[in-house]
Amino acid sequence: MSADEVNSVEQGTQATESRTLPSSLVIPGIKGEMVQLRPATLDDLPLMDELQAYHNASSITGKDAQAERALVHTWVSRSVAWERGLSPEESGVGDPESRRTIAWSVLADSNPDDDDVDDRTKVIGMIFLIDIDSWAKSARIQVMLGRDYRGRGYSRDAMPRVMTYGFAPEPAGLGLHRIWVAVPEKNTRSLSVYQSLGFIKEGTSRHALWDDANQRYQDQIVFGTLVDEYDPIRSLDVFGMHLIEDNPGVKEALAAREHSLAMEVNDSRSKREAREAANDRLSNDLASLIGGDSAEEKAAASKTSTKNDGRGYNWPNSNNGDEDRNAKRSERAWWRNLVNRSRGGNE
Predict the structure, then answer these.
(1) 3-state percent breakdown (helix, strand, coil) of the chain, nearest 5
(2) How far is residue 170's CA from residue 173's CA, in Å, rounded to a whole number?
(3) How does residue 59 score in pLDDT terms, banded at 50, 70 and 90?
(4) Taking the domains of the chain in order of start, what are their residue ranges?
């Protein structure tokens, strides 16, 4: 990607960035290798009870089953209201901050076009982008699976694809800047998944949750990742999954990734050129202290007495090029080389 193309991507991103959410949203379906995601409906809510999705909630999310169930009903209601173009107040559950939520039902099926089977029988859980804050470009992600579907890799297939959509620039995605999660300290399985996805530990809320099973308080760990940190390819590859290019936001995410890599290359090139320029200045400065018939000979003479120190600079602090590799370090000191060369011989 050329410098002009990089600038074009930057200008295009800035031009489309908005601090408000649309009044209605067509929630896209998302394909996975193990699961399919479709917009959750109110009719899907009883299925979560049948799946025992709220079993052991205090260990998974840090909330009791009754509270978790009420939250899921709220999130799905808000998601459906947004699809219908209703305001948060009209959703039936309200939202004082006018934030939005997207809820997808997770279907354990790799063929969403199979019309012979009611897809409600394939639902194994839900995944959410919660409290989408258009001003801060932030959202929280959470997965809830039925009791018998946990630990099988379904969330590892679904989460990266939802995050790719969330981070993709508008209108292909939500244009988020940050996605975060909050996890009870005892939920080590989820902590491992989030770290594998590239989430970074941001902090700990001490004794923020009650562990009912062990009758004690537990910490809540907050993890987050930013749009310029998230790699849609690596996040899937770490779990042996593959990118599905016709998923929403994937093409834009790949373009942004290419843009980021191009910026890194340009930055690396600039730093290399700066090091080379500094190196040339150092050589010329040293050459001015060394005898010789011309500036070129002086520079060449100074370079023969230098050695790269690993930081991109050729410091004359070794016997680089000397035949006697066993000479004492003091005899190879850069200032001795300068003195010897200025005198035209050895001490």
Answers:
(1) 45, 20, 40
(2) 5
(3) confident
(4) 20-248, 269-343
Q: Quick one: CATH architecture of 20-248?
A: 3-Layer(aba) Sandwich (3.40)
Q: Residue 289 is encoded by which pair of tokens?
A: 């202290």
- Max alpha carbon distance in the chain (Å)? 94
- Segment 242-271 mean pLDDT: 80
CA distance 35 to 154: 7
**Percent of the chain whose pLDDT exceeds 70:** 71
**3-class DSSP state of 79:** helix
Residue 335 has pLDDT above 90, yes or no: no
Q: Which pLDDT value is given to residue 208?
A: 93
Pairing of strands 36-39, 30-31: antiparallel
What is the pTM assigned to this prediction? 0.70
Q: Please state which of the ranges 78-87, 128-137, 326-335 shows the lowest mean pLDDT.
A: 326-335
**Cα gap 249→255, rounded to integer Å:** 10
Ranges assigned E (strand) in the chain: 30-31, 36-39, 100-107, 123-133, 138-145, 178-184, 200-211, 216-226, 307-308, 314-315
With a cut of 60, say whether residue 326 has pLDDT above it. no
Are 40 and 158 spatial neighbours (Cβ–Cβ below 8 Å)?
no
For residue 346, is it left (φ>0), alpha (ψ between -120 and 50) or beta? Answer: beta
Q: How many helices (H) and strands (E) does the chain have?
A: 10, 10
Q: Does the pLDDT at position 319 exceed 90? A: no
**What's the CA gap between 254 and 246, in Å, rounded?**
12
CA distance 187 to 142: 13
